[in-house]
Amino acid sequence: MSSTIYYFTTAEISGIMSVFALREGDVLDDMKREPGRHRRYLPRLISVRRQRIMFLMGLELGPRVSEIIGLRWDALDWDNRIVTIWDENKGVARCCTMPDKIWEELRSFRDLVDLRKEQRIFPITDKTANRWIKEWAMAAGIRRRVRWHMMRHTNIVQSRRAGRDWDWISQQTGDSLATLIKWYSRLSLEDRYEIGNSTPLIINSTNHQSNFGINNVGHDARIIRS
Number of folded domains in the chain? Predict the structure, then answer.
């Protein structure tokens, strides 16, 4: 029996990040046109930045949808740069890390929201989280079916592709090394394309390029286990 793991490729991640940049740029342009009415556009700015940060934290933390929407501001240890996530499946908390750049962006976002009213960083439902990620993908030109759990797969696959240690991935996700190696040790189609493209067996002097480019792989990014 074979199974398939779907994730976001590097190109698709860049595409989604471009969507956030364009949306924030539109809001900032509106604020510049009406400098005396910043408060009118503040909710839009908060929404765009909240969604961007949710995507970034999803990439780095690999949380399940229940974990990301349940994440509270008081779960952040700003001094030690640690995020404490409650693992409902195992009934334990796990300590995760994020790059400094995300902490800095998160701090700037925190200054925009009213912490007296919002105890959760992402006060939405799981349905909204899945709707958001579908909207991001659609806006980035990703036409395949997506859902939030792909962020967990993406965290693991892209962390492995970036050369992160298996033990780091295990501690970050809460999955055992045995589980990770069982499900994620095989090369993805993205890996296989890059390896084959960088080490061709046939060198064509006419520099002919195949139609099977990285963008095509990006729309069919998966690990096939058999």
Answer: 1
Residues 11-64: tens digit of each pLDDT = 999 999 999 999 999 999 999 999 888 888 999 999 999 999 999 999 999 999
Contact 90, 176 (CB under 8 A): no
pLDDT at 207: 55
Structural tokens at position 63: 């949380």
205 domain-assigned = no
In a domain, 196, yes or no: yes
Binned at pLDDT 50, 70 and 90, residue 88 comes out as: confident
Q: Give backbone dihedrals phi and psi of 192, rounded to 5 degrees, phi first.
A: -65, -40
Q: List, as one string, the DSSP characters of 3-50.
A: EEEE---HHHHHHHHHHHHHHHHHHHHHHHHSGGGHHHHHHHHHHHHH
- d(CA 31, CA 29) in angstroms, rounded, equals 5
What's the CATH number where 170 sits? 1.10.443.10
Q: What is the distance between the alpha carbons of residues 201 and 209, in angstroms, rounded to a whole number?
A: 14
H/E stretch holding 224 reads strand 222-225
Angle of helix 150-161 relative to helix 177-184, nearest 10 degrees? 90
In a domain, 30, yes or no: yes
Tell whether the model's pLDDT for residue 121 goes beyond 70: yes
Instruction: Give the CA distances from residue 177 to residues 35, 96, 214, in Å, rounded to whole numbers and listed in that order.
Output: 53, 16, 30
Whether residue 110 lies inside any domain: the answer is yes
- Computed over every residue of the chain, the mean pLDDT equals 90
pTM, two decimals, is: 0.86
